[in-house]
Write a structure and sequence with these properties.
Length: about 250
C-alpha cells in the first residue's frame, strides 16, 4: 500500500474579520509543532494576501475557496487562478457543495475550473458528495461516479498528482451529522476504485482523499484512521485554532 501523508485543510467559508483571520493563521502556524500532517487554510478571498504574509516561512499551505476558469476578463466578482497564485495560494477548492448547490455549478462548469487551475499551476481540492435523498435511495456511488467522470474529464494522470479529492456528503456539511467511519471508508474506497479505473492503480494509490462533513476533535481520530481516509476538509471546526489543531493532531 502506498504511504500517503495526511492532509487537513480548513475552509473558513465567509467567516472571519481581517484581524481574526490573521490571528487564526498565526495561531495555527505556531501551534503545529513538528506535526507531519500537511495543513492548509482556505480563508475568504479578500484575506488571502494578508494571510499569505502571516504564513510566510511556515509549513501551512494557502488555498482559495473558489476560482474562475478564465485568466482574465469581464467576470465581475471573480478571481482567476493566476490571481490566486500571485497572492500566494498553492491550492484552490473546486466544486464545494455550497458552490454546486447554492450557485448551480455543474460538473461541466467545474471541469473547466479544474483544467484552468491545474494548467495555471495551482493544486486543487476537488469536492464531491451526495445529497441525503441520493444516499437514501442508494445512489451514492452513481453520484460520485458522475461527479468524478464529469469533473475530471480530460485531466491527465500527470495532473492527478496535483489533485486531492474531498468526499463531502452534503447531508453532513455544517449539520453536525457526521458520516460513520464505515460510511466514509466505503465511499473513499469507491472513489479510489473509480480513480483506478480511470487512471490506473498507481495514480489511485497515491491519491489523497479527504473526508469533509462535521469533522470535530471528538470524531476526527476514528474517521481519519480509516484506511482510505487521508485527511479532512474542515469547515466550522477550522475557525478556532484549538479545535483545528486538535483535528490535525488526531490525523497524525
Ligand atoms: C466544509 O465546509 O467543507 C465542511 C465540511 O464544513 P463542516 O466541517 O462545518 O461540516
Amino acid at each position: 500500500m502506498a504511504l500517503r501523508p495526511k492532509f487537513v485543510a480548513g475552509n473558513w467559508k465567509m467567516y472571519t474579520t481581517l484581524g481574526g483571520a490573521k490571528e487564526l493563521a498565526a495561531a495555527i502556524a505556531s501551534g503545529l509543532g513538528d506535526s507531519r500532517t500537511m495543513v492548509a487554510v482556505c480563508p475568504p478571498t479578500l484575506w488571502l494576501s494578508a494571510v499569505a504574509d502571516v504564513l510566510k516561512g511556515t509549513s501551512v499551505l494557502l488555498g482559495a475557496q473558489n476560482c474562475h476558469f478564465e485568466k482574465e476578463g469581464a467576470y465581475t466578482g471573480e478571481s482567476s487562478p493566476q490571481m490566486l497564485l500571485e497572492v500566494g495560494c498553492q491550492y484552490t477548492i473546486v466544486g464545494h457543495s455550497e458552490r454546486r448547490h447554492g450557485f448551480g455549478e455543474t460538473d461541466a462548469f467545474l471541469n473547466k475550473k479544474a483544467h484552468a487551475a491545474l494548467s495555471a499551476g495551482l493544486k486543487i481540492i476537488f469536492c464531491i458528495g451526495e445529497l441525503l435523498s441520493e444516499r437514501e435511495t442508494a445512489q451514492t456511488e452513481s453520484v460520485l461516479n458522475t461527479q468524478l467522470i464529469g469533473g475530471l474529464a480530460g485531466i491527465t494522470a500527470e495532473q492527478m498528482k496535483h489533485v486531492v479529492i474531498a468526499y463531502e456528503p452534503v447531508w453532513a456539511i455544517g449539520t453536525g451529522k457526521v458520516a460513520t467511519p464505515q460510511q466514509a471508508q466505503d465511499a473513499h474506497a469507491y472513489v479510489r476504485r473509480t480513480i483506478a479505473g480511470m487512471y490506473g492503480e498507481n495514480v489511485a494509490a497515491a491519491l489523497l482523499i479527504q473526508y469533509g462533513g462535521s469533522v470535530k476533535p471528538d470524531n476526527a481520530a476514528t474517521l481519519l484512521h480509516q484506511p482510505d481516509v487521508d485527511g479532512a476538509l474542515v469547515g466550522g471546526a477550522s475557525l478556532k485554532a484549538d479545535s483545528f489543531l486538535a483535528i490535525v493532531r488526531a490525523a497524525g
